[in-house]
């Protein structure tokens, strides 16, 4: 177990191996920081220079992933530890299926389980989607119409998602999921959550940049398998945050409150300024939690961010609070110069369009350090 994981509360499952995170010297500095100082500014400055988020393509990391994935039984805790700081792109489909518990860790069972789950998805589509509207209730017809309206709006700045067949796949996945999950049904924002899965599972069949992708030549069988993997992985992800999408979305409301409390603890000046201006966190952070930041950062960075999300497992909802605090406080200085109206506009159109992996790694590293510092004394986050 890594030094960092020993310092966390026992109930917290994520671990982060300093050996996988860049040079151990850099990581040691970060870990010493978390235990030896309570000055948040020092941690934030230190993390700017941290190599925690070393690129996933580093050959030593690829070797470690290969070793973890090649055994008969994958040790999920070790895979989580590796995946937290990024998964090599060509390994992502297998790693994500494993992290979400969709594919079993036992390699002997994997192929059979996936075949069965893909057939089950096909049955669901035939039963719920491929039927005439005369066999649907009024609520189901309305829900299907809403999904059909939202699909063309999904990641509008990426042309791939404007292809009619891609939107049809999204529609089938979302409608089938909604019918099978009546407690929430379809909620706007869930359409965004399918997109990282769609891109990752398509990457097993399509090469090059997403800008050049087309699914028009793919067989119906392949498309169905990809949809099934998206459907089951979406289901697994949302099982861990069901109350985010039920009536009034109480899970999101609770996390927005925790975010406000955490920002107050970390950066009192910006917290006070936002309060003085009358800015409510729900005005900007609701969308962050609802769509898991997909609408806030360039789409080419989303799968890297989701490596960390999926590595978090059941702890993800609470860790989102730390990621989003780190994301918000990227602009601490700018926010303190803005009035209410300017802040609302700024937070709804954040200047992330030119972000690279480096900015994202900084956000994640800072979140990791703050979690190590504050999560063992969570009284400041009491609801």
Automatic annotation (TrEMBL):
Cross-referenced SUPFAM superfamilies: Ypt/Rab-GAP domain of gyp1p
Region feature (Disordered): 1-59
SMART domains: TBC
Segments forming domain Rab-GAP TBC: 86-313
A Pfam family assignment: RabGAP-TBC
Chain intervals with Polar residues compositional bias: 7-22
A molecular-function term among this protein's GO annotations: GTPase activator activity
InterPro entries per record: Rab-GAP-TBC_dom (IPR000195), Rab-GAP_TBC_sf (IPR035969)
UniProt-recorded name of the protein: Rab-GAP TBC domain-containing protein
